[in-house]
Amino acid sequence: MNDFQKNLLLRRKHYRERRNTVRKILFILLLILFFFVLYFILQIPNTGPAAIELSKNHLIKSEYIVQNISKEISGRNFFFISPRKLTKNLLLSCGLLKNAVIRKYLLPRLKLVVIVKEKQLWGKLIANNSGNNPAYITNEGNLINGNYINFNLLPEDLILVFCTNSTYVSEAALLILKDTLDFFNTRLKIKINKFLVTDRNTLEIYTDNFIKINAGYIDSNLLVKIAKLSDILNQIKKKSYLIQYIDLSLENGAVIKKVDEGKVDKKHLRLFMILH
């Protein structure tokens, strides 16, 4: 073996030793970093409770959301808390929420940021057995109890839905009532004062201009019957009738009960003026 080969072998040995030394140093640094991160994770529960910040809640009380989330994360390591699971549980516990996003932050301090989107309310339902505890109706047909609602911020134009039955109205029926309300507002330009749902699941409509309408059963045909009102009200207007109520419950046609002459009161006179 000549000198050149010896020098080459020595150089390779030197590079190999230096490479191994660098690897050992990197391994030690990674090991230190691993234990530091592990220590940081284990110390997170000892850094105090995480802050919860809310955004875009209006009708829902802030303390309700804070208490709900605080209960979920109490005693748990903040590092392992799943925002997705928190969001799912929050949506299940609060029917007024349409959507929610929860973000988790470790720095500069532990905190959860909760951004919510609420459903819209259109009515207030009072059942025969509910006492003084009404439920509130969303556009999606959900019934919401008032435990977590800011009553001072409720819309002023909520429609009263009174249910004479001992149970609440079904979601499907509430959606039909919402469509009926929209028809009155957009097509007939008549404001509804309240809905009355009877024991037989039939609907009575009381308008703001003192018209009582017996609409019949709350089913898929209800809106077809309601659509007759456009022509009926036009006929009432042409003939200058003063009426007590309109009955749409018949399969064909409708019944109109007129006010007897000499028994016209201020309410019916107001009806006459509005229809004209």
Summarize this entry quickly.
The protein is α/β, with parallel strands linked by helices and 276 residues long. It contains 7 helices and 12 strands.
Give an overview of the whole structure:
A hairpin with a 5-residue loop joins strand 2 and strand 3 (111-118). This protein starts with a helix and ends with a helix. Strands 6-5-4-7-8-9-10-11-12 form a 9-stranded mixed beta sheet. The chain contains 7 helices and 12 strands. It is an alpha/beta fold and 276 residues long. It has 2 domains: 47-118, membrane protein fhac (Ubiquitin-like (UB roll)); 121-275, Cell division protein FtsQ/DivIB (Rossmann fold, 3-Layer(aba) Sandwich), CATH 3.40.50. Mean pLDDT is 83; it is low at 268-276. The protein is elongated.
Major β-sheet annotation: 9 strands, mixed
Spatial extent as radius of gyration: 34 Å
- Going across the biggest sheet, name each strand in turn: 6-5-4-7-8-9-10-11-12
Q: Please, how many domains?
A: 2
Q: Would you count the extended β strands for me? A: 12
User: What is the string of helix and strand elements?
Assistant: HEHHEEEEEEHEEEHHEEH
List the helices and strands and how they pair.
Blueprint: H1 3-43, E1 51-55, H2 62-73, H3 83-93, E2 97-105, E3 111-118, E4 121-127, E5 135-138, E6 143-145, E7 159-163, H4 171-188, E8 192-197, E9 202-207, E10 212-217, H5 222-226, H6 229-239, E11 243-247, E12 255-258, H7 266-275
Parallel strand pairs: 1-3, 4-7, 7-8, 10-11
Antiparallel strand pairs: 2-3, 4-5, 5-6, 8-9, 9-10, 11-12
